[in-house]
Specification:
This protein has about 350 residues and is mainly alpha-helical. Helix content is about 65%, strand content about 0%. Helix 4 packs across helix 12, helix 5 crosses helix 14 and helix 7 crosses helix 10. The two termini are about 20 Å apart.
Length: about 350
């Protein structure tokens, strides 16, 4: 996912947008919505597809976010941008989720800013990763460092959802992977003669998921809790975490290798991925909390759920939706909260 202002950077600098990353985000946000729909389906087909999706869709999103953070230096205009596109929408939609809990469950109204609701962990995590980017870039071996952090973090038995630290630390290797991936690395991957091997790898992963997904917990790919909560020793948990990082890493590279490089009718879905991410959760929440989704246990019903997820993704990507909800998803308040360092000095060119 990416911020609206970041999305316009290429346009402001006069450079045409490269559809490659937009295509990747379009596919991934579609998988995000589909995965959230399938989370609540009780069919074997739904479970297999859901497990396969979770093996790589968020790692790939995090890696792309890391790649797009390569120029981040904690400059005032950059801090203003992430406050506008990440932190303020996080607060807004935390409030929306609290209101939904009141409506759906008749709970007391309570907004817990330190504990992200459902999908909102990603906004807070991305905010923190961006803040830490200059530090990560200063390290000699940032990828090795991040892998060590990801493996050691779940040893803490009290690792929880506060400020989504569990996922911030566990998904860190994928953010750093994107951070250390240069445009030249992506060019080589896109030009790799046998890049369609990635399709075979992802297809094999889907087949493996059909065969084995009931034998382990899908929460292994969520990477948000301690080893203790998975009822495994620290050593076994570390081995499993390394295996998960390896599997997801290979899947991410395979996915990026086969991502279409030309513009298609659905490319703009990727450009609007953050809006889709923010809006689909409150729209789906009442259905998610109902017993209807759990009653779907047939392949036919599962296919209909997938179609519904695809339709919702397309609808939320439309221009009229983006325009109508921009005040919620990208409120222009950053400039009011961050001092403009350009005042009193020569104005720097945009970009």
């Amino acid at each position: 996912m990416t911020t609206a202002r970041h999305q316009n950077r290429a346009k402001e600098s006069g450079k045409p947008r490269d559809p490659y990353l937009d295509n990747a985000r379009a596919i991934l946000i579609t998988l995000v919505v589909t995965g959230h729909f399938l989370d609540n389906v009780s069919s074997y087909l739904g479970g297999a597809i859901d497990t396969w999706i979770y093996a790589f869709h968020m790692p790939a999103f995090v890696a792309i976010s890391g790649h797009l953070s390569r120029s981040y230096r904690n400059e005032p205009r950059q801090i203003s941008r992430i406050i506008t596109a990440l932190l303020v929408p996080y607060i807004i939609f935390q409030t929306v989720q609290a209101l939904l809990r009141v409506i759906v469950h008749d709970d007391d109204f309570s907004v817990h800013l330190w504990t992200p609701s459902w999908t909102l962990w990603f906004l807070l995590a991305l905010f923190l990763w961006r803040i830490f980017t200059p530090l990560l870039r200063a390290l000699r071996y940032p990828l090795i460092f991040s892998i060590a952090i990801s493996v050691m973090a779940p040893i803490a038995t009290h690792l929880d959802q506060t400020l989504t630290w569990g996922r911030v630390l566990s998904f860190l290797p994928f953010f750093v992977l994107g951070l250390v991936t240069t445009p030249d690395h992506l060019r080589r991957l896109r030009e790799f003669r046998f890049r369609h091997i990635g399709l075979v790898i992802l297809g094999a992963g889907l087949a493996l998921s059909f065969l084995t997904h009931e034998k382990f917990r899908i929460s292994l790919f969520h990477m948000s809790t301690s080893y203790d909560l998975h009822d495994v020793s620290d050593i076994r948990g570390a081995i499993v975490r390394i295996a998960v990082l390896l599997i997801s890493g290979i899947a991410v590279i395979s996915f990026m290798a086969i991502t279409p490089q030309r513009r298609h009718w659905w490319t703009d879905i990727g450009k609007n991925s953050l809006t889709i991410y923010l809006l689909h959760a409150p729209l789906f929440y009442p259905l998610r909390e109902s017993e209807f989704m759990d009653s779907i246990d047939s392949p036919g019903g599962t296919v209909l759920v997938i179609i519904a997820a695809l339709l919702l993704t397309v609808i939320l990507s439309r221009k009229w939706v983006i325009t109508a909800t921009n005040w919620l998803t990208n409120p222009p308040v950053g400039r009011w909260l961050v001092e403009d360092s350009s005042q009193g000095s020569p104005k720097k060119p945009a970009g």
